[in-house]
Specification:
The chain has about 375 residues and is an alpha+beta fold. The chain contains 11 helices and 8 strands.
């Protein structure tokens, strides 16, 4: 399960299941890119490694795990395949979101076991939701939904009717009741299969729905992972794959330079700068995960986590940019590991959750509030 631990740029020691996933994901990385989705074997290995069950409540057989273990495990997989790590991280994160469903809805999602893979398209709200008797009817399209081809369930979000009283509501829908459009034609994270989901008059019972703002409040009597507000950990989950992607690029770039008799004069500067950025990013994510797992939860610590996760993501992207820029003509091949890392890192860092300006505004608002607790 998710037991690998790593500090800075030192080698990790993954659990056997996770090591199996990493080896398989590395072998199939190019095929995932070409096919624009993970293979069924990689998806099954993600489940076997414990990612979908990582945040599932223990009452359903889940691990109710910690964010530190998730960051370490995701980064390890990302060194082999950024797309596999992205899907692994989101399958875990979406299990955490599904824990906010009413009890009957949770039972339906996990009645066959805690390893159900859950895809999602929850921000921004899309499609249409209309109340029908005591249920909801969903129509429209949602995109992107990473890993949807291998999902058992999908969380979809829509605004409900009501003008000023409308709600941003999340609905859990069996994947079998939805159709998928092949729309994921991208430069980076190609293997995530983040396609478009279509609902045509899908009925969703009330017990398989909850309001988005529920994610801001702790679940009564729940484990720590369900007591942390969504904004404190959202960016952390999306930044974790970037850390492993950057480490992979650094490893390849360094090996290539070590094999050259007379490396470019700029090699020491690029190597030191990129490795320092990646090392710093790892420390920032370790700190943010520790804060989420054990720290005090205040508006300031929530903002600090957003600040640190988005900064870590930016540092990883900058490091990979430098490594790709100085890789020469060999990296112009689309299957070169540094180019693939550059494309994946660029795509991942562009996710809205990792917006540094939004994180900076939230941090400034917390620090400059009447009782901020002081900047750290």
């Amino acid at each position: 399960m998710l037991t690998a631990r790593r500090t800075g740029n030192a080698p990790a020691r993954p659990a056997p299941e996770e090591a199996g996933l990493t080896a398989l994901a590395r072998r199939e990385a190019l095929a995932a890119e070409a096919g624009r989705r993970l293979s069924p074997e990689v998806a099954a290995a993600i489940t076997a490694a414990g990612f979908p069950r990582h945040f599932v409540p223990d009452r359903w057989g889940g691990a109710a795990g910690e964010f530190g273990a998730l960051v370490t495990g995701v980064a390890e997989v990302a060194e082999a395949c950024g797309s596999a790590a992205w899907c692994a991280a989101l399958f875990a994160a979406h299990g955490r979101l599904a824990a906010y469903l009413p009890a009957e809805g949770q039972h339906e999602v996990w009645e066959r076991g805690p390893g159900a893979r859950i895809a999602a398209a929850v921000v921004p709200p899309q499609g249409r939701a209309v109340a029908v008797d005591d249920d909801w009817r969903l129509d429209g399209e949602w995109r992107p939904a990473s890993g949807v081809d291998h999902a058992d369930w999908v969380l979809l979000a829509s605004w409900t009717p009501g003008g000023a009283d409308r709600e941003h509501r999340i609905f859990a829908v069996p994947r079998a009741e939805l159709s998928v459009l092949d729309t994921w034609h991208t430069s980076g994270l190609r293997g995530t299969g983040s396609n478009t989901v279509v609902a045509d008059g899908v009925r969703v019972p009330a017990h398989r729905s909850f309001k988005l703002d529920a994610l801001l409040r702790p679940l009564p009597g729940a484990a720590r992972c369900h007591s942390v507000p969504f904004p404190m950990v959202a960016a952390l989950v999306f930044a974790a794959p970037l850390l492993g992607i950057a480490r992979s690029a650094l490893r390849t770039w360094t090996a290539e330079r070590a094999a050259v008799a007379s490396p470019h004069p700029a090699t020491p500067t690029v190597l030191a700068g990129a490795s320092a950025r990646i090392h710093t990013a790892g420390l920032l994510l370790d700190g943010a995960a520790a804060r989420a797992d054990h720290g005090e939860i205040t508006p300031l610590t929530v903002a600090e986590n957003r600040r640190d996760a988005t900064t870590a993501a930016a540092l990883c992207r900058e490091a990979v940019d430098d490594l790709f820029r100085t890789s020469g003509s060999r990296a112009q091949s689309p299957d070169h590991p540094v180019q693939r890392a550059w494309r994946d890192a660029t795509a991942a860092a562009g996710h809205g959750t990792l917006d540094p300006d939004a994180a900076a505004r939230a941090y400034a608002a917390a620090v400059l509030s009447p009782d901020p607790g002081g900047p750290r």
